[in-house]
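Let us begin with a simple case.
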Amino acid sequence: MSDRSGIFAGDNPFVIAQTWLDDATETEINDPNAIALASVDADGLPNVRMVLLKEIEQGATPADGAFVFYTNYGSTKGQEIALAGKAAFVMHWKSLRRQVRVRGLCERVEGPQADAYFASRSLKSRLGAWASHQSQPLSSRGALMAEVAKVTAQHGPSPKRPPFWGGIRITPLEIEFWADGAFRLHDRFVWRRLSAQSDWQIQRLNP
């Protein structure tokens, strides 16, 4: 598409997304990899929360790739995503005046990949993952700290990844790249496909 140049240029949306994230890493004050993650409950009521994107996977072709974050599978988002098998998110960078929107299909990331990421986290974060019954009622901060002390005694200085904690991979069916334009005449390009195995179709959208 000749109209698609500059920051929108390229034939692989995952490469473009990674380039934009790399640019944001140089300009955003905090958490350039923060995403607003949306899921729906059994009644179709949406839920949105901020999480950290940990990897943009890139394959051999522009059709291969995904976005990965990690969570407690028993959390509200974990249960909702397991039920629906779908999720969406947006990354927005004020410093760049850009955003990326993604909608797609979800699957768990477990085994060596999840183990390696868990091992890379700080010890306190790993123990916190064991201690927190995420999204469940908590009587007090003291009760949480007591649980941290308990799991520290149980798991020691090198805790393994909890069986209820791991990654979620979002394989996109739609990716939109948005950049701010003067007088709200923004630039928007959307990549769409019917399935994870289909070729991408690219369109410019009205702002």
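The second case is a distinct protein. As before, the sequence precedes its structure tokens.
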Amino acid sequence: MTTSIRGTANADVLTRFRRSAHWKPLEYAFWCLPVLAYFAFPGNYLLLSQIAITGLFALSLDLIFGYAGVISLGHAAFFGVGAYTVGLMGSHGWSDPLLGLLLAALFAGIVGFLSSFLLLRGSDLSRLMVTLGVALMFFELANKLTRITGGVDGLPGITIGPILGVFDFDMFGRTGYIYSVVVLFVLFWLARRLVRSPFGQSLRGIRMNALRMPALGVPVNRRLVKIYTIGAAYAGAAGALLAQTNQFVSLDVLSFQRSADLLLILILGGAGHLYGGLIGAVVFVVLHDQLSDLNPQYWQFWLGLILVLLVLFARGGILGTAQQWIESRRQRTQARQRAGSTS
């Protein structure tokens, strides 16, 4: 009897996993938007590329913050490692973009793996300080090694070859945009499969109650090390895309401002949803671009005001609030149907 109940429960869990892995119509519609943007905004490929790169960067933080609950104020360290990897390769004759992308993700993942052990020693506040400290160390290291990184002047002379030896990066950003969107989609697909697997469900459990998970047989520390390494590799890939599309790397890729903006983007879109980071990136980059054009001196004030209002009235972020609204409407509809059937 007990065995049959357990078998039924396990079957129900597997069924839910399979259902959650299926792509929904809204997801197909969402990924049609980059294609429509390609034709609708032919003069803004550079801005569209920036949105795709920022979306991938936000996705990398969502994996460790939205799912595992590890907050970070130094995620730009991995972004910068990826950017400088491509920059140094391009300035020394290694111009293959796909090789640069893979090595950037690899080196950023190694840095994330090594620094992840420091995160296991403390609570949320100490983890926050560790991530910030790692980012500041990398920023000052890049600032001091001027002969290698170019320091405050940046790293010029980066040469990026054609993709697959065929598609050259053009000055209008057309190839860079398509390349960035394809990389974003592939990495998003992998992240989607990851978070909908038992591994991803264990991350959610760690975020909700890390003390209880060992009793269920979940190795919490190993899970955190793995997801932190994966998130760092994703951030390194985003940095590589920025260096390849701009063909220039500066200290800005390691700045605290970039990490702070990233956390704001994720909270704005909705953490723990994957799509929240992408939506937050679209809103943030577009607001940044439009407000800086309207008011070059005080655009940060208006951007801050808009973000504060969004957070006040949409505490779960844009995507989280939308899901809550849809769920509440569904519950009200079901309640009315039950009331009608009983009457």
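Residues 214 and 220 are 7 Å apart (CA to CA). Residues 1-7 have pLDDT under 50 and may be disordered.
Keep these points in mind for the review questions at the end of the chapter.
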